[in-house]
Description:
Structural class: alpha/beta
Mean pLDDT: 97
Number of strands: 8
Number of helices: 10
Order of helices and strands: EEEHEHEHEHHHHEHEHH
Oligomer: single chain
Amino acid sequence: MAVVRERGVDVAYARVGEGPPLVLVHGAGLDGRMWEPQLEDLADEYTVAAWDEPGAGRSSGLPRGFTLEDFARCLAAVIGDLDLGPAHVAGLSWGGTVALELYRHRPDLVRSLILADTYAGWKGSLPPEEVAARVAGTRRMLAVPREEFDPTPPGLYAGDPPARFAGLLDAMARDVRPETIGAQLPLMAEADQTDLLPRIAVPALLIWGELDARSPVHSVARAFEAAIPDAELVVLPGVGHMSNLEAPVAFGRAVREFLERVRRT
């Protein structure tokens, strides 16, 4: 693990491989370990970095008043610490929202965007009643005693969680900090990045699970595809919200083929 300090936070990230930089941004209630199959798969051609966002994994806690822009600035610090120039940046779910915010503030650091099962903020991608229901559900989750705390929201998978990653998922769940989710909740709920999507001027790959119940293809993914000028949508059949773990081979193939096209152009 490497560590870079930014915005009062020690931000840890794993780094493997050699080649152009590919930075992976995990979802809320998780950490960089969720990218384990991609770290193994893509390090033959790329320098792959998977951060633990501020308040998660081996990074230090969130300072009071931490904003979505602060998350983006910390991600920018990781890319700067790699010292390899602009990076391909991939984010899943909340990680995609952070990647978009990075592009808003530091487009010079982004060679391409890979957005998987994500949102332009909950406010920007979901109906108000759905946002209200998620906020209420998360608050109920945070109100239970610590020994009963389960950070896994409903609808993450098309079926059961993938058995091969059961130990990894349990380990990440045990390490989730409720205070981080509590601080992120209003940021997720209030973010609306729809103004940014038409201004994205780098190649963008959209990877979505066909059965994603949390960020549906028919509404969210299609809206991204229509709004981003140079966007390509790949829908993975039979897969839910955690597409990188439910279909790691297909996910990795889509990423590799996209990055090769970007390289050629």
